[in-house]
Amino acid sequence: MSEPTLTINGGTASDEELVALLVALSTLAAPAEPLAAPPTSRWADRARGIGAPLRPGPGAWVASGRPH
Description:
The chain is mainly alpha-helical. It starts with 14 loop residues before the first helix and ends in a 5-residue tail after the last helix.
């Protein structure tokens, strides 16, 4: 059996103190940098479906039906 990592020798800790200790220790165990998300394929990219920006003004209604 291995040695314990943390030993409490005496005293009484409140619930809040124990929670603060656990939070502090869990931040030390967290990875240094977050994992990168896998790249999104162009097929699944939602920005692909967005067309040209809208341009309000005279003739915009007629121009909206024309291909760019």
